[in-house]
Design brief:
- This protein is mainly α.
- It is built from seven helices and no strands.
- The longest helix is centred in the first third of the chain and has 25 residues.
- The radius of gyration is 16 Å and the shape is globular.
- It has two domains: 90 residues, Rna Polymerase Sigma Factor, Chain: A, CATH 1.10.1740; 52 residues, Arc Repressor Mutant, subunit A (Orthogonal Bundle), CATH 1.10.10.10.
């Protein structure tokens, strides 16, 4: 194996599943999520800076993934496919929650995913998104409030 193949394999094993879930939540379509993910890893292999730590690499990958998702939505008309189609990528328990989260506005969806699924702190999310910590807190609160209201209405 070449160095690039080894780098790709290691990077994909480490970050692939969580990046795919993130892209799927943003794109709402498995094929589009896979396309975005492919572009993220292409950029990792051929355009990435040197990373000071694995956490630096992880933040960079999520930032690239978010930007790629936004670009994909801007430049093409997208057809949404129900998340059930991608049920193999998530557990059945996660599927219901992902469906609810996928209906949130993008800013809330992104911070909820980064905080609860990826374990980023509020400060890290603020740095990743280029917003303030109070903005992240408000987006988390609004997202949680909306999810809570939706859940209570469905009972």
């Amino acid at each position: 194996m070449t160095n690039q193949e080894l780098l790709f394999e290691k990077t994909y094993e480490t970050y692939g599943p969580s990046l795919y879930r993130f892209c799927l939540l943003q794109m709402k379509n498995p094929a589009d999520a896979e396309d975005v993910l492919q572009e993220v890893f292409f950029k990792r292999l051929y355009r990435a800076p040197s990373f000071a730590s694995p956490e630096h690499e992880r933040r960079w990958l999520f930032r690239v993934a978010l930007n790629q998702c936004r670009d994909a939505w801007k430049h093409a008309s997208r057809r949404e496919v129900p998340l059930e189609v991608a049920s193999g990528a998530v557990t059945p328990e996660e599927l219901g929650l992902l469906e609810q989260v996928s209906r949130l506005p993008e800013p809330q969806r992104v911070v909820l995913h980064l905080h609860y699924y990826e374990g980023y702190t509020l400060r890290e999310i603020a740095g990743l998104l280029g917003v303030t910590v109070p903005t992240v807190k408000m987006r988390l609160k609004r997202g949680r409030d909306t999810l809570r209201k939706t859940w209570e209405e469905s009972r």
